[in-house]
Fold AAA family ATPase.
Amino acid sequence: MTSQNQPLSGNGSSERPLADRIRPQKLSKFIGQVHLVGPGKPVRLAIEKKQIHSMIFWGPPGSGKTTLARIIASEIGGKFHHLSAVSAGKDDIRNIVRSVKSSAQQQLNIKHLPRRQAGQTSNISKKNIVFLDEIHRFNKAQQDYLLPFVEDGTIVLIGATTENPSFEVIPPLMSRCQVFVLNELSEKELARIVTSGAKELRLKVPKNAQDFLIRFSNGDARQILNLLEVTARLYRRITVENLKNALQAKFLRYDQAGEEHYNTISSFIKSMRASNIDAALYYLARMVDAGEDPLFIARRMVIFASEDIGMAQPTALVVANEVFRACETIGYPECAINLAHGVVYLATAKKDRSAYEAYFRAVDDVKKHGNLPIPLNLRNPVTKLMKNLGYGRGYEKYSREDLLPEKLKGKKYFRK
């Protein structure tokens, strides 16, 4: 152990974030999730048997989703492709698939080479693991695009999400992936991570500072390591006072391009959904204080008005749109008041997701059945021939007749 005043390591690796530098490379070094990686548990067995299928890791931030995915690829000798659904799109998937298929073609060609030369290039056939972080941020069309490549084994998909995949991942993709739930790390597990981080930084962490780090983290290992690293860089010594001072740095508390940005907006929406006015105002205040774009906040409120309030109080959409308009025309600092006004209104409104859920039930049938023939009585008889064929025949305004295509007669999407 070096002196507390000695500078941090000056090698190139120190430029990488601490969380990345101490990320375990082997399953034996992985901390937590014993129900998945302990002896005889499903993920460990899959790795040991090298029978990796597409899966989704659902768990809180900092619980080891990315690390576990990397370990899986490493342990089976696979090729690891890391994408974030925040910034990635179809083109990124397309490029990976093109690369995989090109490698597969090379593998076929290798069969025609002399045995010695073929052996030198045999690593081409590695399994291709596509890790898609925050998979819930891929829209339905993007998720649909993944389906055929997951289904035919071109790629092994490992999706990571902090949101319930039952609501955020399309059913066809869910049916092709096994969902594993990762738990929040325990205090003992977090203490091991503090020790590992301190060892890398070559610093001592007193017991009271370790306890502070664990309480601050809310089970998130990345939060611990970020705060530990920033404190070490600013103050060299790890004390409770120095940790608290480091917390005042806004870049640590709220990064508009990072995970805390999404954690905060998620908490904001969920608080309004729960009609918890005080929590919703608190998360609004955090975003405003951090300089979040007011139009980003207002845009989410417009979506919320239709998605979560809907038919219970249709005027909520009018209010949300007016808040958005006010933010456009007024801007900060005054538009923060408009946002607060709208948040209180939306949080206190009754909630009804029936229209939102009905629409996606209809979307599922469209995807399942394609363009079913429209009933003749609903078709527009533009020409005489069309009229003779029965277009528009029997149609009555305000009819209570089932107007769905024949194959869907009796379906009820909207349920009160």
